[in-house]
Amino acid sequence: MSRLSRVFFAPLLGVDSGFGKPYTYVGTVENQGRYTRRVLLKAALGGAVGLALVAPGQLLAAGQAAAAAPATLRLADDLYVVTVPGAANVVARTGAGGVVLVDGASAAASDALLKAVAALPGAGPVRTLFNTHWHPEQTGSNQTLGAAGVPIIAHENTRLWLTTDVKWPWNGQTFKRLPKVAQPTKPFYTSAILEPGIRYGHLPDAAHTDGDLYVFFEPQNVLVVGDVVSLQGWPTVDYVSGGWIGGMVGATQRLLAIANEQTRIVPARGPVLSYADLKAQAGMYATIYERLATLLNRGRGPSEAVAAKPTKEFDAQMGNPDEFVRRAFESLWAYLSPDA
Ligand SMILES: [Zn+2]
């Protein structure tokens, strides 16, 4: 797509160049805007299509790690973080009516996870499953629990991503759509209350995907946030499914408004965060966003953005930033128009 048509398309797509403002789809069919945006992205990437399928060896890592015993962290009498080694964090709320699960780890870790959840004090059968987003590290128990008739709650965008094959142009990885039985059955758009004490909502800024949600366990004051924040490693800013670095800024600010000083924040990866940690993450993403937007406006490309070390003061804690910076920079193409 030419420079001219990209400028021309941006306003039509409802693109907002200011961070922190929610992205809104244009048109009545929600998927319509996303489809158009994906076409735009493919064009912006110079036609990055025709990608190879993921090598089988890449799928083995989680399965090998799943052999070790899961770790359980008690947050309250009825609330736990359960982590199969090598897999993402899962939160389980036990109760008389059964277990509410936030995320289900990878498919390879699912059996070990569900056994560990069943062994929690006061655990009954799983009665509700949340998907914080569509990534396979979170949706690996959808098949088993969906087949057992457990309702699966996810944002509508997450449901849509799980009904289609997704390809990542940066590494050629392909994700197959989930079978019908594994797809979310209770999609929502904005926010809702599962029951008194458990509320959840979409992060409409489009953070690391456009379907990211939070679940807030109010009596325990625990906020579960998926991959939007982490003290352990940079996120994949998945612009193929609508995520962008400006959305990371907006979402972390939004989470700060939901939480309070005593809230514990559970990410998909790494240790539980404090409110101060969340605040630091919001500041970090705001800083990085400003730097990348400046580089983009000066006509720089992804490799120059990496070379400029826009994350340098955070790298000691967060790790090698190169892939993150590349994805974050590329994510700006979908939302900011450099030649406007
Ligand atoms: Zn993710």
Give a description of the structure.
The protein is α/β, with parallel strands linked by helices. It contains eleven helices and 14 strands. It has helices at about 5-10, 30-45, 60-65, 110-120, 140-145, 155-160, 245-260, 275-295, 300-305, 315-320, 320-335; strands at about 70-75, 80-85, 90-95, 100, 125-130, 150-155, 165, 175, 185-190, 190-195, 200, 215, 220-225, 265. The strands form three sheets. The chain has a seven-stranded mixed sheet. It has a five-stranded mixed sheet with strand order 10-11-12-13-14, with no helix packed on it. It has a two-stranded antiparallel ribbon with strand order 7-8. Helix 5 (about 140-145) links the parallel strand 5 and strand 6. Helix 7 runs antiparallel to helix 8. The two termini are about 15 Å apart. About 45% of the residues are buried. Mean pLDDT is about 85; it is low at about 1-65. The chain binds zinc ion.
Instruction: Give the spatial strand order of the biggest sheet.
Output: 1-2-3-4-5-6-9
The radius of gyration is: 19 Å
Strand content: 15-25%
Biggest sheet features: 7 strands, mixed
The termini sit apart by 15 Å
Q: Outline, from the CA principal axes?
A: globular
Q: pLDDT below 50 for ≥5 consecutive residues: which ranges?
A: 1-66
Instruction: Give the helix level as a range of percent.
Output: 25-40%
Mean pLDDT: 84
Count of DSSP-assigned helices: 11
